Inverse folding.
């Protein structure tokens, strides 16, 4: 069994795996949120630091827009030594696809820039699961069945994204990269990973949508200043001990809650 797994990984590692992060400055709810600082690092820097600790990725790409206000995202990407691609502001699906094509990726792990404390172990685990099953599935996600909002990601091939992009007919599928894939389960083979009980807390939001999210994230990051690679489990344990903190961003409404699959 072990030799079989090694063979599968060897075959799949010939494929180029990249993390693509969507980020732009002119968020309607919290403009310039990626540049808010905690412990002298921007939120985008916190995210990149965590993702650089993932072993099964060939390249990290920030996919931003061509807008002048996103020049600073381009400059930050260069400063922290990650790749950057600039494309359409509103057609996010096209932006991600073009980024994948530009860097000759075979496999895409898609993460939004709103997830500064995403657990790198969970990302690595999801990529490994995809690699082990890539001959059987088209798409895998760990963000649908219970993980806190801000801890999930999704993995799929560039080929599948290009195919689904050609079939887009609804406007919201241009904004949410894999929505067309998820809406077509008969066409695309999909896996949704169920988190273990200790990581299941779907009503918890540790993503960065509004200013109150920033205040909660600030408490979390400062609490782990001596352990910067804290895990999702660490965050959940911290917040269960400090339940009053949950009120900080309890009124934030997430756009994802209104998406119809």
């Amino acid at each position: 069994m072990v030799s079989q797994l090694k063979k599968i990984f060897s075959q799949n590692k010939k494929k180029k795996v990249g993390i693509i992060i969507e980020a732009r400055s002119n968020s309607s709810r919290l403009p310039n949120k990626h540049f808010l600082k905690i412990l002298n690092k921007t939120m985008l820097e916190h995210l990149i630091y965590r993702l650089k600790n993932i072993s099964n990725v060939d390249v990290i790409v920030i996919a931003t827009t061509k807008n002048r206000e996103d020049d600073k995202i381009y400059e930050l990407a260069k400063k922290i030594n990650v790749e950057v691609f600039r494309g359409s502001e509103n057609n996010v699906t096209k932006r991600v696809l073009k980024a994948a094509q530009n860097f000759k990726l075979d496999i895409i792990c898609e993460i939004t820039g709103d997830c500064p404390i995403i657990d790198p172990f969970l990302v690595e685990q999801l990529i490994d699961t995809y690699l082990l099953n890539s001959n059987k599935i088209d798409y895998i996600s760990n963000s649908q069945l219970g993980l806190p909002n801000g801890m999930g990601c999704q993995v799929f091939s560039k080929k599948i994204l290009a195919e689904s992009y050609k079939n887009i007919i609804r406007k919201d599928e241009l904004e949410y990269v894999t929505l067309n894939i998820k809406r077509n389960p008969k066409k695309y083979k999909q896996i949704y990973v169920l988190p273990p009980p200790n990581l299941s807390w779907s009503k918890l939001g540790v993503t960065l949508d509004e200013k109150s999210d920033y205040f909660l994230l600030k408490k979390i990051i400062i609490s782990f200043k001596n352990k910067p690679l804290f895990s999702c489990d660490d965050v959940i344990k911290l917040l269960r001990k400090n339940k009053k903190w949950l009120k900080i961003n309890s009124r934030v409404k997430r756009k994802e809650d209104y998406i119809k699959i």
